[in-house]
Fold this protein.
Amino acid sequence: MSEVYEKSPFLLAYIKWHYGRGLKELFAVFGNFLWFVSNFFSFKLLLKTLFYPWKRLGETYEGGLNLNAFASTLIVNGLMRAVGFCTKTLVMLVGLVSYVFLLIFSFFIFVIWVLAPIILLGSVALSATFFVI
């Protein structure tokens, strides 16, 4: 503990830490979680490769005037691009839902963090009144 906190009475030092350094560290943790979710789902890469074939699967057209081979290659490559698009879109939607859930969860944790000392003091005061009555 730093000297600033050691020179203050315990309750005042706790309040300084809770609403000062504690909040900074809480926001740093929130930032780390948000960074993790965005990198885990790799939104940039998924957007960049949204219309690429799924897992780079596809056929190459050999050339010439073979219409069956051309149609087969066109259909397989189109299907692989459609599968890639659907899969990447689904992954991005799951990532977006996770990101929004994490933001909402972080907000509730922030509210709990801010109100925790007040709730603690209120519950101690309320419990003391039960012993007096």
Notes: Residues 30 and 106 are 7 Å apart (CA to CA). Residues 3-132 form one domain. The chain has one domain: 3-132.
